[in-house]
Amino acid sequence: MTTDKNSLEAKFEQGLFASRWLMAPMYLGLVISLAMLTIVFTKELVYYAAKTFTLTADQAILAILTLIDLSLAANLLLIVLFSGYENFVSKLDLGDARDRPSWMGKVDFSGLKMKLIASIVAISGIHLLKVFMEIGKSAGTGLDTDKLFWLVTIHLTFVVSGVLLALMDWLAARTSKH
Question: Which of 52, 76, 153, 159 has the most CB atoms less than 10 A away?
Answer without folding.
Answer: 76
